Every structure is written in C-alpha cells, then in structure tokens.
Amino acid sequence: MKTFAAIDVGSFELSMKIFEISSKTGMREIDHIRHHIDLGMDTYAAGKITYARMDELCRYLNEYTQIMKTYKVSEYKAYGTSAIRETENTTIILDQIRQRTGINVEVLNNSEQRFLDYKSIAFMGEAFNRFIEKGTAIVDIGGGSIQISLFDKDTLIATQNLRLGVLRVRDYLYHLDVGRRQYERLIDELANSQLAVFKKLYLKDKQIENIIIVDDYISALLRKKQFAERVGGQVDVGTFRELMALLEEKTLQELTKLFDMPEETIILLYISYILLSRIIETMDASMLWAPGVTLCDGIAYEYAQNNKIILPEHDFEQDIIACAQNISKRYMGSRKRGETLERIALTIFDSMKRIHGLGERERLLLRIATLLHDCGKYISMVNLGECSYSIITATEIIGLSHLEQEIVANVVKYNHMDFEYYDEMGRMSTLDRESYLKIAKLTAILRVANGLDRSHKQKFKNVKTKLMDNELVITVETNEDITLEKGMFSHRAEFFGEVYSVMPVIKQKRTL
Asked: Rounded CA gap, 192 and 208, in Å?
C-alpha cells in the first residue's frame, strides 16, 4: 500500500488529491483539497504571475506540504499547466516555488496535460470503453484552451487544440467591458471561425454521436444532487439543454443560491456552457457524459501504471501510434512503406538491445519516426528533412513531451540529411547529451531500415537480424534484384558503424 499525492497547479484552482494505491485494492481517493487561486488572470492578461499571487500560491503549497505529512504521503507529483506554462518567467517561478515550499513542480506541455486527462477518463474502465464504441469526442475545456480528441471505433484518430479556454475568453470579455447578455454573441464570433476550420479538417465524413466533457464547471454542476438524480452518468443533448436553460433565465444572484457556487464560478460555468454548445452544434452530437474526473486522477493513475501497481486496461501506446498514423495520412504519407520501415527498424532495434541500451519508450519513438518518415514531401521533395522536422514539431502528438517530439523530429530530419554532431548542433539546440545520443542511435537504425527499402518496392518477404561479434547480419528473403539496395547501403551502414561500432551487412536468401 502506497499513499500518493497528486497536485495540480491549475489556471483557476490549486488542487491536491490523496490516494491509497495498491495492486490488490487499486486506487482509492481519501482526500481532496482545493483552493481557488486565479493564476490565469495574471498570465493571460500580462504574461507574468504577480508577486502577490506567487505569495498566495506558496502559502497554500506550504499548507499542502503539512497535509501530506499528516497522511504520511510516501511520494507525490506536482504539475503546472497553462497558467505557468505560458508565463514569460516560468523557470524563475518554478525555482521560487521549490525554494519557498520544497515542492518540485513540473510543467506539462499541452499534449501531456490532455493525455493525463484522457487517462483519468480511461480509468473509468468499462463505462469508457462502451461509450467510445461509437464516434466520440473528448472535449477537454481548460482555462487556456480546449482540446478536442476524436475517436472512431475505439481508436484515437485526431486531436487538436483551440485557444478558447474559459479563463482566456473571460479575460477577453472583461477587456471589452460588456454585460452577460452579450456573452453568447461575442463567444460565437470567437469560436465559430475556429470550429468551422476544425469541422472542415477533421469531421468530414465522420459521425460524432457522443461527447465526453472534461472541465471544472459543467461537470461539477451535473454532479450536484439536484442534477445528478435526473442526469445519472450520461445525458442526451436535449435534456442537458433543458437543465442548462436556467443559466439564461435567472440572475447571477439567483444562480449563486440555486447552484451553491460563487458568482465568479457561475460566469465561468456560463462561458463553458456556450463553448460546449457550439461544439455540440458543430458535431451534431446526441449524447453527453461528464465523468467528473480531474487532472489529479490522471496523475495518480499514471503513477500507479508506471510503477506497475495497476495494469492499464486500455492500450495508450496504440493511441499515440494511431495519432501518428493519422498525421502521416494527412500529409499523404505512404502507409505501406511506413509499415515496412516500422517492421525492419523494430527488428534491428530488438536485436541491438545489448548494444544501444535504449528502452521501450525509445522503441515507441522509433515507431513514430518510421510512420512519419516522409511527411515533409507534402511540402517539398527537395527539402524533405527540414520540412518533415517542421511538420512534426508543429503538430501535436498527444502523449509525447516536447523533448520526445523533438527527438522524433530530429530522427526523421537526419534520416534525409547529413547528421550534425553535438558541438555543431548545440549552437542551435537546447538538447542535452542524453537526448542527442538517443537521436543518433535511432537515426542510425532508421537509416539502415530506409536503405533496405531504397526502391520503395517492399521487395523483402522477411527480414531477420543477428548480432555476431562486430557485425549485424541482416538476412533478407527475396528472389528480386536488390542491386540498388546493396549499392546504396554502404553510406547508411557507415553511420550505423560509427554510432554502434557494429557494421551492418546484407545477406540475400532466395526462396523456392
């Protein structure tokens, strides 16, 4: 049994959940502490968190430290989201928090944050699996942005971020100094153009019947007794609109009493509802589900999963792969060739484990690199490496950190270009030596795999590899002429030999 604390330094709230986690009983929440602190107001308006707000944040975090001691918490994870991520002085903020509270806060990029939210929903188990059997969108409404992730037959097919977060929209409306009656019209103008582009790019020929809502306002309201008894776990869109009609009919003071929420939260709830309504209309969805999960649940679930205390029922790695496959499709990548490269590259990777010292996460990054190996040709056949790099770094791959995305982008880039050595690369990059070496090792493997299919004809029925002394013997089964592959293999083999001190050699095995 472990006692674990998950801390979310959010845009509007500082939240901590305490969990008991064990392989026998699973994950059990034993306390949930929340403090309202509007970090987003500072960040989205001025780009920095004020001294007064920092003082307030550190005071609360010191209280959380004492609470963790009371519960004898053995480990914790603390994450900051967009309000800290988008400050101009993030590094200074994190250092101040560490010095004043002893809490080490890590900053999640957008895709990492949304992936944790997604994991918290998947932890709902069978209810989640049933709901995504039909076309489903997870609509994650945060303070700074909205993430929309689309599922088709249990598979994640696309994810996109829209800068339409509740706090960001609220600050924009405050700046305009308008009344609540004008909110809907102005939010329509803000949202409709972005949603129209989203619909054109991602919803063509797709039927989205279900929406899963992840937010701090609508979800909280639907869990209140007066609504929970009528709604239950899931609600049809018509019933949902009837319930939410109160937001337009009653005054703020009346809603504050009715919902037992402060006025500020009611305003954010109203903005969240308008945004969700526009998304429902765009997708023509019929069913909603607000599971009531938070980022803290996702943090705890990932901790339990990484420490092998709880085995996941859902294949999250396959979601990342599916996301990469759909990016490749969007940029006219060759699926057949990507699969061929993936098969060859992973065969080489697995046979070289003793030499390269890389793990399962790096194997996943190699898989993604093979799938995206030619995405840059959509822009230029000549500058394939640079264009591929730009596409990969600019496109969100849910579940990958910025560093992991940078590694994949560089592996694809140097598959097509001369490799830059660390001292040269260091002038233009923030990569550390460990990441640089991962790039070199994965690039060497991808180059060899690419060389084995240089003609793009997938000539080999089977590829086997065997590490023998200082050679990697690659046996290919084919009756076709592989003169081109052999002739252009030497340059790629040289770099592989430089990285691993192992020289790859091709042996042809003819089949009857």
From this structure: 18
State both tokens at 107. Answer: 């900053």
Structural tokens at position 480: 């076709």
pLDDT in tens, 433-489: 899 999 999 999 999 988 887 655 666 668 889 998 889 998 887 777 777 777 777
- Kindly list the distances between the CA atom of residue 287 and the CA atoms of 129, 233, 348, in Å, as whole numbers in the listed order: 15, 11, 46
Short-list 355, 506, 323, 491, CA closest to 415 = 491
Please give the DSSP secondary-structure letter assigned to residue 466: E
Q: Could you report the per-residue pLDDT of 273-293, keeping only the tens digit for each?
A: 999 999 999 999 999 998 888
For residue 418, what is the DSSP state? P
DSSP conformational letter for 400:
-
Q: Please name the residue that has the structure tokens 């990507």.
A: 338
Write down the pTM of the prediction: 0.82
Measured between alpha carbons, how far is 374 from 500 in angstroms, rounded to an integer? Answer: 25
What SS3 class is residue 250?
Answer: coil
The rounded distance, in Å, linking the Cα atoms of 480 and 77 is 55
Alpha helices (runs of H) in 71-133, residue ranges in sequence order:
82-85, 90-101, 110-122, 126-131
